[in-house]
Amino acid sequence: MIRRSIFIFVTLIVILAGCSNEPEKNSSKIQNPTDSNQSNEPEKNSNEPEKNSNEPEKNTSKIQTPSDSNQRKPQTPLTDEQILMKPPGRFAGSNFDEQKVQAVLDELSTDLTADQYEEELLLLLAEDYRPYVSTFLNFESEVTVNNPRPNEKVTLPSSRKLHISILLDASGSMKATINGKSKMDSAKEAIQSFTDKLPKNAEVSLRVYGHKGTGSQKDKQVSCNSTEEIFHGQGEQTNQIKTVLQDIKPAGWTPIANALKSVKQDINPETTDSIVYVVSDGIETCGGNPAQIAKELHQSKVKTIVNIIGFDVDKEGQKLLRQVAASGGGEFTFVDNDEALKNYLNKTYDKLRGEWTIWKEKGEGQANIQKEQKQGTINSTQETMQGLANKENSNLLAALKYLKTKKEDDFPHSELLKKITERKNFAWNYARDTGKRLYAEVSKSGNQVYDDIKDEGNKNIDDLTNKKNN
């Protein structure tokens, strides 16, 4: 019985000993750092209190390594524009009220740093530079002049569509000679010289009349019905006229009215300006009414001006041809030799050549005006910004003076004064330097455009003058 009791007692001790060791085993498992689910608990860092004792706890995390730090953005310095584009203070501009400013200053803490004081003062008194900085940022310093330019032989503006009709008398009387040269040859040379200088995008037609049959009565009908457009093209194609004129010989009668009537079918409906030059050495001989036809042309949808060039015409003929020109809204010009004919056509050409002079002078003026307007905007913006900087500085200094009288001796007066002075110099110099840079850019661009227009205009005027004299 005693032995059985001893066995039971020993067995109980063994069991109790086993139970007393189990909690220790589990406890060590829970405290194992590699298995712990308590990674965010303070205990995790309890073994490293001295490693970074002066740094915020968040800097101990691997996430905060220099390459991944989210703290970089606030450290990026602001650009000059970003600083000046900040909203204005509560009492900036017309909202300034010295008593209200002082009331707010009275509420400021007494232990602020110079940086904190500056921030508080700017929240109250910073002027609004935003409109002027925006003007500088968006300023277009390039001067541009885009007037339609005459090119080569003179080019009309694209909005104008000019049609020039030349009607050449090929009646038998054009065989007559002046100074050893036939009227027909003189007329051909003058027409070729004239058309070479027409606007290259003008529509040009050359029509002859009276070039068929003979001057006899039996051929009158054939001759009076003869009017033919032998060239129709652009001003840049007029070098072909010399070829088509070679086969034209003086022949029959003078159907001026019939030739004028045919002009209507030569004119493009989109034409905006139409001019007719009739070269004739005599009056209508086919019974037509050229004055009436000229009047109809002048009053048509495409208003046409009819000019008559009387080539060695007698006084009676001049009188009749003047009536035709007057009815057509044009002019009559009498020429009695080939040089006079060329000179008249060259005078007409001079009017067209004058488009280059007009283009040049207009462009030069626009370049100067645009340059001066841009420079005026720059100067105004610069001066306004500098005026705001002066005003802001005056208000900040007044606030500083007030703070000095209210705060304790440890108030950072000198440091804050330095910051206020730097603020003024920063805004003032930004306006000066930016304005100076943009002003120089505008001046360079404007002068370049002016010189380019002047050089191009003078070159083309000189070229055209040389063509005229050759």
TrEMBL record:
Sequence segments annotated as region (Disordered): 22-92
Matching InterPro entries, A to Z?
A: VWF_A (IPR002035), vWFA_dom_sf (IPR036465)
Compositional bias (Polar residues) spans? 28-38, 61-79
Report the residue ranges that make up the VWFA domain in this protein.
163-352
Record Pfam families: VWA_2 (PF13519)
Q: Tell me the domain of life.
A: Bacteria
> Basic and acidic residues bias: where?
41-60
**Name of the protein described by the UniProt record:** Amino acid dehydrogenase
- What organism is listed for this UniProt entry? Paenibacillus selenitireducens
